[in-house]
Amino acid sequence: RFRGVPRRDSGQFEAAISRLHGTNFMINALESSSTRPYLIRALYEWCTDNGFTPYVAVQVDETVQVPREYVKNGEIVLNISFDATSSLKLGNDFIEFKARFAGSAREISVPVGRVIAIYARENGQGMAFPAPAPSLGTEQGDVPSSAASPSSQGQARMPLRDASRGTEGDAGKIVHLVTGEDADEAIDTGLPADPDDEPPRPPAGGGARPSLKRIK
Questions:
Q1: Which of 28, 30, 90, 205 yields a CA-CA distance of 20 to 30 A from 69?
Q2: Cβ proximity of 69 and 104 under 8 Å
Q3: Which structural domain, as residue segments, surrounds residue 6?
Q4: Which residues, 6+ apart, have CB-to-CB distance to 113 below 8 Å?
Q5: What is the per-residue pLDDT for 10?
């Protein structure tokens, strides 16, 4: 029994405490934040500690602030390593940093919800996330009208291959990333891709490739 509480009221007191705990649990469940920014920070730290170059793949819409001339098929890959960026902030809502593209300093701002993968350039190890729902007025995979410029054609090759761009229902599918020379062709926040080159083709043969697992 609770000290100072009459015997006849102790049951009501216990019931009130139980209801209060249940309410707090529901509030905490509703207010819990996404795990995506925490996983991004963890994998960024893992890449840095092991001497790897962290890349993030971003699905671009009007909320993403990146050089539109480097957007390809509505997506862009960014090098967020310490050497390639300055003032990097991996927040819960946005990834923000400054970087040079073709010698010109640019400010980058990416909503965390638009990040569809983070991985190491050298070996492709990392994690893929469910693709965000397409914005109103645009079709999934399309570049917004502000990004549709002639200079955007043929640039910024994506290192993601065989990637399923489904919704969270596809969370169990495996995403394969290229490594080696093809992985080096991602946007390195400073060097534009060669527009005359043909898009990379999947390697012939059944060699093992690093894989990522989609999470919710």
A1: 90
A2: no
A3: 1-32
A4: 34, 36, 132
A5: 60
